[in-house]
Amino acid sequence: MGRLTISFALTAALVVLAALFHMSVGAKAVPLSDVTGAFTAFDATVMDHQIVRALRLPRAVIAIFAGAALGMAGAMTQGITRNPLAEPGILGVLKGAAFAVFICVGFLGLVSVAWIPLVAAIGAVISGAIVFAIARAAPEGATPVTLVLCGAAILAFLSAVLMAVQLLDETTFQNLRVWASGTLTGAKLETVYWALPWGIVGAVIAVWIAPRVTAMAMGDEAALGLGIDLTKTRAWGFGAVVLLSAAAVSVAGPLEFLGLVVPHMARMIVGADYRAIVPYSALLGALVLLLADIAARTVLAPAEISTGIVLALIGAPVFVGLIRARL
Amino acid sequence: MTRVWASKSGRFSVLLPAAGYGVLAVVAAVLLAFFIGQVALGTYVLSPAEVWAALTGSAEDMARTVVFDFRIPRALAAMLAGALLAISGAILQALTRNPLADPSLVGVSQGGALAVVSTIILFPAFPPALRPLVAFIGAMAVAALVQALSDKGRGRNALRFILIGIAISSFLAALIRAFLTYGDIRDSMSALSWLAGSVHSSGWQDVAIMGVALAAIVLAIPAMARRLAVLQLGEEAATGLGLDVRWTNRALLFASVALAAVAVAAVGPLVFIGLIAPQAAKRMVRTGAGMHLLLTALTGAIMVIAADLAGRTLLSPTEIPAGVVTAIIGAPVFLLIMLRRNA
Fold first, then answer.
1. How far apart are CA A21 and CA A60, in angstroms?
2. Is B15 exposed, middle or buried (0-12, 13-18, 19+ CB in 10 A)?
3. pLDDT tens across A17-35, in order?
4. The whole model's pTM is what?
5. Nearest 10 degrees: Cα torsion A226, A229, A235, A240
6. Complete DSSP assignment for B172-205
7. What CA–CA distance (Å, rounded) separates A111 from A176?
8. Which helix (H) or strand (E) holds B6?
9. How confident is the model at residue B1 (pLDDT cuts 50, 70, 90)?
């Protein structure tokens, strides 16, 4: 077995372990044997089995799904912008989702929380499309630099409007401030069902163009020499980023930081080939988000912290450690 | 058109791109126009003659008070904060050779912001007058932390600095968000409005502090521009040309961080200026590093003063903080510049 296979197998095993542990901790501790029992020998009369299947499983599935999607979105973002500082957030995608939700809830008086996932996904797709269209229209086309600058401009614009909305409308700020920090609380399995198709399409695109993104990482000239259509590849890559981010933000809110850190961790472990980075970022993203969510639910138990906040509080020091050790 | 100016001994020489001076003149004129508008307009509108009378000392007391105690310090504070943040961003971008680098990206703004937000939420009775000091200390402390963490041997120090800066700034942003999310809603709103960035309450004291910082950096521009130009060639080449890269990196980083800290302390975290102003200036005209820094400073000054003017007049009497308007107006303008100009 190669080193790559071992890394993948090991990480996959860790994801399963983390998921089991994730389902066992909470307001009521469920022994690990009962967690596995809920799947292998489900007994509707056992309270713990019910808790695991009805309450804990959806949240674990959402953590895995959102983590994997954001990990891949981050890898693709850094690949097509060739910028180690880039993440889906810098392309305006996550802020677009938050913006759409705040506008719909604050001004259009959208009452039902059930609509938030759909609104968030649509907001992400629209803002992503706008960023790409503008970058495309620039004289030099959709290059790494124009993509990132357009994204940053749209991001700043949306943040500012969002800030104004929050300042003028205290009620909406109060209602949505927990959602806006990125959280898995109240996660419902139904939202995953319809976010899943987008996520899968995004993942397939990401894996499909991964070899070309690897070639692009060596520079535009090298990629052109290999007969790669740069604009087309970036367009596909951007599409993957938007679909994956939209899927993640619709189930878990605008979780920042994951998309930035995970690809770096992946690169440090599996090397510079995006054929390995993309799938490995998915595994690693799922693992990191599961661990962050475990911490979010246990550190201040019975109170719960936003997963997004925990993610940054834990992820940042880890990231600093990685940079100091490897760069 | 480019001319070369050289001192007699030939030890010093400067490239003078003529196009740069034309653009410089236009940008300076625009800035002056905004300054006059800022002084004349508002709830109490003054005619140009009245402004002139107030400036020369022959106006009535009311006009003098409005002009000298409120409008001029506010206008100057906006311009200075914009210029400081813009130069800070330009230095950081040149240093890291990354168009995404920005004071708010490496934790400086968040350091100041966290210091202020945590005092607002944890000690609601803390006097607002001391917020600038708290912000400055927070910003510098975070910069020192990032520098200490990224200082390791030789080599790619700038990249390490910015990556660690990003990690730290995300960490701080999460703490800020935690305070905003779980703090008392009234304190959260108060913190949120400080976070929006405003030159609303700026006085002569802010102007004096930022003015000194700007004067210091303007005096340093010639020396700085040469080093930045050499650094553009890459760290290996720069070392080969006899530049002490490590020392230069540190000095420039310190300059960049200190400028941003001063501005954040005075007006709150105005994001976007440090990111966009250097890019916009670069796309106006191609020049050397020194002229680029000057244009960047003026562009930043225009962005903030225009934003403040728009924020307090357009929806009057409701005032929108300058930081919010900067981005709402600045982003589309920047995109237009980017679309038009063949870079």
1. 10
2. middle
3. 999 998 888 777 888 888 8
4. 0.74
5. -30
6. HHHHHHHHHHHS-HHHHHHHHHHHT---TT--HH
7. 12
8. strand B2-6
9. very low
Interface touch A173/B178, C-beta < 8 Å: no
- Given the cut 0.85, state whether the ipTM is greater than it: no
8 Å CB contact between A178 and A199: no
> Bridge-partner residues for B4, per DSSP?
B15
Whether the CB of A141 is below 8 Å from some CB of chain B: the reply is: no
Cα distance from A316 to chain B (closest Cα, Å)? 5
Joined together, the tokens standing for residue B90 give 């330009």
B182: Cβ contacts below 8 Å, ≥ 6 apart = none
Helix spans in A181-273 (H):
189-216, 220-225, 230-252, 258-270
**Spatial separation of the C-alpha atoms in residues A119 and A105, rounded to whole Å:** 10
Length of chain B measured in residues: 343
| Contact B328/A at CB under 8 A | yes
Alpha-carbon distance values, A188 to A58, A102, A123, A264, A289 (Å): 6, 20, 20, 30, 17
List, for residues A89-99, the tens digit of each pLDDT value: 778 888 888 88
Structure tokens at B240: 């080969």
Measured CA distances, B180 to A160, A306, B105, B193 (Å) = 17, 12, 20, 11
